[in-house]
Design brief:
- This protein has a single domain, classed as Peptidyl-tRNA hydrolase (Rossmann fold), CATH 3.40.50.1470.
- The protein contains seven helices and seven strands; from the N terminus they run βαβββαββαβαααα.
- A hairpin with a 4-residue loop joins β2 and β3.
Length: 194
C-alpha cells in the first residue's frame, strides 16, 4: 500500500470561476484543507496555491494550480519533480462530464478523456496517477460543453455535488493511507440518498 503524498485539485483561478463546475477539483482540496486544518498560500515556485500538513498520520502536500486549466502541467509537473513524488503517490481531483452530478469515481491510470487539465499533465509524468472524478453531468451536445463547465451548477446539482464531495472526504483515510482498493469501493459505490 502506497500512501498519497500529493493531492492536486484542478480548476481555474479568478473570482469569476470560483463557483463553476470546472472548479470542483478546487472545491475538494479546499474542503480537505479546511477539514484537516491545513493552511493554503500562494507559492510562486509552483505557480499555484499550496499547503502541507498531516492527514490521517500522513505528510501530505496540497496543490491548486493557478495557471488556468489547460496549463495545469506548468504547476503540477515542477512540484512532482522537485519533491520526487511517484505517480502512485498522486491524487488529482477534477470535474468529470461523463458521470452525473452527485456521482464520484476513483480511477487509476487511463487516458485524459478530453479533460484539458489532465491532457496538460499526463505527457510529462505519465498516466498512472490516481484521479478523483467528480461528476458534473453532460449538457447533451459537445457544442454546449464549454458553457456547461464554465457555468454554475443548478441548485439541485450543487447539493448533489456537495454530497459527493462529503463522501470523498469521508473516504480520505483509506485513500491517503494507501488502501486504494477499499477507497475505490467506497467512492465508486456512493449513491445519493433518495
Amino acid at each position: 500500500m502506497t500512501p498519497i503524498k500529493l493531492i492536486v485539485g484542478l480548476g481555474n483561478p479568478g473570482p469569476e470561476y470560483v463557483h463553476t463546475r470546472h472548479n470542483t477539483g478546487f472545491w475538494y482540496v479546499a474542503q480537505l484543507a479546511d477539514r484537516f486544518g491545513i493552511s493554503l498560500a500562494a507559492d510562486k515556485k509552483f505557480h499555484g496555491v499550496t499547503g502541507r500538513g498531516q492527514i490521517h498520520g500522513q505528510d501530505v502536500r496540497l496543490l491548486l494550480p493557478m495557471t488556468f486549466m489547460n496549463k495545469s502541467g506548468q504547476s503540477v509537473v515542477p512540484m512532482v519533480n522537485f519533491y520526487g513524488i511517484d505517480n502512485a503517490e498522486i491524487l488529482i481531483a477534477h470535474d468529470e462530464l461523463d458521470i452525473p452530478a452527485g456521482s464520484i469515481k476513483l480511477k487509476t491510470g487511463g487516458g485524459h478523456g478530453g479533460h484539458n487539465g489532465l491532457r496538460d499533465i499526463a505527457p510529462h509524468i505519465g498516466n498512472d496517477f490516481h484521479r478523483l472524478r467528480i461528476g458534473i453531468g453532460h449538457p447533451g451536445h459537445k457544442s454546449k460543453v464549454s458553457g456547461h463547465v464554465l457555468s454554475k451548477p443548478s441548485a439541485d446539482d450543487q447539493i448533489a455535488i456537495e454530497a459527493a464531495l462529503d463522501a470523498a472526504l469521508d473516504a480520505s483515510k483509506l485513500l491517503i493511507t494507501g488502501d486504494i482498493e477499499k477507497a475505490r469501493g467506497d467512492i465508486n459505490g456512493f449513491k445519493l440518498p433518495a
